[in-house]
Amino acid sequence: MKMGIVGLGNMGSAMAQGLLDNNIETFLYDINKDKRDEFKGFERANIVESEVDVVKNADAVILTVKPYAYDELLDKIKESVENQIIISVTSSYDLKKLEEKLPGKKLLMAMPNTPAKILNSMTGICPGKNISDEELRELRKIFSSFGETEIVEEKNIKIYEAVCGCMPAYVYMYIEAAADAAVSYGMKRDVAYRVISQAVAGSANMVRVSGLHPGELKDQVTTPGGTTIKGLKSLEKDGFRAAIINAVDSIMNK
């Protein structure tokens, strides 16, 4: 399946990098020529001159423009959409809105995150009613080329975006804050970033590999009267859990 991407910002370029690193032929367009030119060195990258050119050449087209630009973009390409699969990557433009613009066409939502750039995305996939099982399998395989995938029900796509699509930013903020604290006590910043990011990655992998409840894993680290329980007590006092829940609430209730 030939892929297309319209919009080469942070998410679009991350997905393009992942697809091209896996030798998937991809047609690319961005209104900014410099962003297009960044992909000229990739063997399977086809740099085209318009959004319509992407649609005409690709079997599936990922729309990675800003949510406010979707209406204008879909108006530009709708006459060229025939049997192509059109993919939204924002819950702000869901299957219902896509169907209003492209009635009867093949539509799909995909919620990746920026670690796609290093082949570590977590992508939620929500197919529209006209996507066949075979097409869904092939698209899932393609999205799995730059990370992992999960089929998500349409009713859950927004919460998926809130906890997975946005998650890298939450984690980066945590790492930055922890590093600031380490630097304040004399650790070199590059060392702080390296050791803290590995601690985060290892802890996340521990949840997956062990299959244990995160609370149980937390208890394994927390010895009576030790340093960890003091840190946890401080986090509870400062509303760490509530802050995370409130962040998700702010997205769900916007």
TrEMBL record:
Keywords, sorted A to Z: Amino-acid biosynthesis, Cytoplasm, NADP, Oxidoreductase, Proline biosynthesis
EC number of this enzyme: 1.5.1.2
Protein's GO biological process: L-proline biosynthetic process
Pathway terms, separated by semicolons: Amino-acid biosynthesis; L-proline biosynthesis; L-proline from L-glutamate 5-semialdehyde: step 1/1
Residues annotated as domain Pyrroline-5-carboxylate reductase dimerisation: 154-253
The reaction(s) this protein catalyses: L-proline + NADP(+) = (S)-1-pyrroline-5-carboxylate + NADPH + 2 H(+); L-proline + NAD(+) = (S)-1-pyrroline-5-carboxylate + NADH + 2 H(+)
Entry's Gene Ontology molecular function annotations: pyrroline-5-carboxylate reductase activity
Keyword Cytoplasm found: yes
Residue ranges occupied by any Pyrroline-5-carboxylate reductase catalytic N-terminal domain in the UniProt entry: 2-90
GO cellular component, one term: cytoplasm
Localization terms from the record: Cytoplasm
Gene3D superfamilies: NAD(P)-binding Rossmann-like Domain (3.40.50.720), ProC C-terminal domain-like (1.10.3730.10)
Entry similarity comment: Belongs to the pyrroline-5-carboxylate reductase family.
Task performed by this protein: Catalyzes the reduction of 1-pyrroline-5-carboxylate (PCA) to L-proline.
Protein's UniProt name: Pyrroline-5-carboxylate reductase
The organism of origin for this protein: Peptoniphilus faecalis
